[in-house]
């Protein structure tokens, strides 16, 4: 362990490195306080602070009466366009969505431009929280033209909007243009994530495009970065 930092940070960094290098895999129980205390020649209070830090950062989770485990992060492949339900499907997780706001309003100039509509047109504004294993890991703000989806109800948005568009409306989705930015959350988002406003999160701004090349939604999605990771697979082109 590097000697510059307080002992609990040194220990936390060492455990984090072991998790990153797969010495401890997802779902593994980490050694107990007494074992880590003896192994690193530190007090149990130091171990407790190090473990609490890694729980706060999303590396570990504590299960009462069972132990402390390496936490699984939700993986999002940037080259696959999937709904929330499709990403969670087949995984051993309990997931749900909760609608926090559902309104019909006029768009801002920025939203109108992105949706290629007039500022006098009407849109849906929907804020939803994405919940996995009773914990909010993402908050989504969605803006959709009323003219494209006049029958889009509150009940429909409790489920999958992609299913509604493709299966109920028979309209195919082509692509999504996405922009990723690390930001500090505002008070409302921080309160939902139960984190301080000085803890960075990830914001993804996206524009959804139909096969007809018409924009059908603008979304701003806020991710609790400790719960989520993104993967990119790059392929080398050969001449």
From TrEMBL:
CDD domains: WHTH_GntR. Keywords: DNA-binding, Transcription, Transcription regulation. Pfam families: GntR, UTRA. Residues 5-73 form the HTH gntR-type domain. GO terms for molecular function: DNA binding; DNA-binding transcription factor activity. PANTHER family: MANNOSYL-D-GLYCERATE TRANSPORT/METABOLISM SYSTEM REPRESSOR MNGR-RELATED, MANNOSYL-D-GLYCERATE TRANSPORT_METABOLISM SYSTEM REPRESSOR MNGR-RELATED. This is Putative transcriptional regulator (GntR family).
């Amino acid at each position: 362990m590097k000697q510059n930092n307080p002992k609990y940070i040194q220990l936390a960094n060492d455990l984090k490195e072991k998790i990153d290098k797969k010495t401890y895999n997802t779902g593994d129980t980490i050694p107990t306080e007494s074992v880590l205390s003896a192994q690193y020649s530190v007090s149990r209070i130091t171990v407790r602070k190090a473990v609490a830090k890694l729980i706060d950062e999303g590396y570990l989770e504590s299960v009462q009466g069972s132990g402390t485990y390496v936490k699984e992060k939700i993986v999002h492949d940037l080259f696959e366009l999937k709904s929330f339900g499709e990403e969670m499907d087949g995984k051993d997780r309990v997931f749900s969505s909760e609608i926090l706001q559902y309104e019909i309003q006029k768009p801002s100039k920025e939203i109108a431009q992105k949706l290629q509509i007039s500022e006098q047109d009407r849109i849906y504004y929907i804020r939803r929280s994405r919940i996995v294993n009773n914990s909010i890991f993402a908050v989504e703000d969605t803006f959709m033209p009323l003219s494209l989806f006049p029958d889009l109800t509150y009940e429909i948005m409790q489920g999958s909007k992609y299913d509604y568009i493709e299966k109920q409306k028979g309209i195919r989705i082509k692509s999504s243009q996405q922009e990723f930015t690390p930001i500090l959350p505002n008070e409302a988002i921080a309160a939902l994530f139960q984190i301080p406003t000085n803890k960075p999160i990830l914001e993804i701004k996206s524009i959804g495009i139909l096969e007809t090349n018409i924009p059908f939604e603008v979304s701003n999605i806020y991710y609790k970065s400790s719960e989520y990771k993104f993967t990119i697979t790059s392929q080398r082109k050969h001449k």
